[in-house]
Amino acid sequence: MKPYRFSPIKSKGELFEAIKYTHFACFELCKKALGKYLSVAGNIGIFCHSKEEFEFLTKLGEELTDHNAPNFNGKYFLLHEPIVIKAKDDIPKTTYEYLYIRKPDEIRTEVGDIDFVIDKKEFEKVRKLGSINDVKIFDRPDLGMCGFSSSDFDVLSFLTTKTVAEVINN
Hints:
Layout: H1 12-34, E1 39-47, H2 51-64, E2 65-66, E3 77-85, E4 94-102, E5 112-117, H3 120-127, E6 131-132, E7 135-140, E8 145-149, E9 156-160, H4 164-169
Parallel strand pairs: 1-4, 5-9
Antiparallel strand pairs: 1-5, 2-3, 3-4, 6-7, 7-8, 8-9
């Protein structure tokens, strides 16, 4: 797997290619772990790997999002126009309403992440497993989430019990 698959992202088109890739790879990671697809929480994150890339994507993100709208933790910003990715094979059509650009982290090579929503009972079971179907599960109690990672994927997937909109509006 090529480290920094899309970095440095230098155009809006390249950002959308990274978003599309992240979408499909995260769904596949979710299915590998749980044997099924889940609904998304409404956000997609793209990870930067240099200061220059972060500066470019932050500026581009300001054009694509409403920085006056309520946001979560100062990082999940409401898109002016939702990103809709059409269904492909058995991966469902999905709409993202929030965009997150992660600060540079040269050690982490992932392209991005998405959050999936799961009911509380199943969430509690999954977060305690440690691993499932060759996918590592890591707990993020500080965020009320748990995540999936696998050496077969250059993305991360997270589980939560609420959509981003629910978190922001509560």
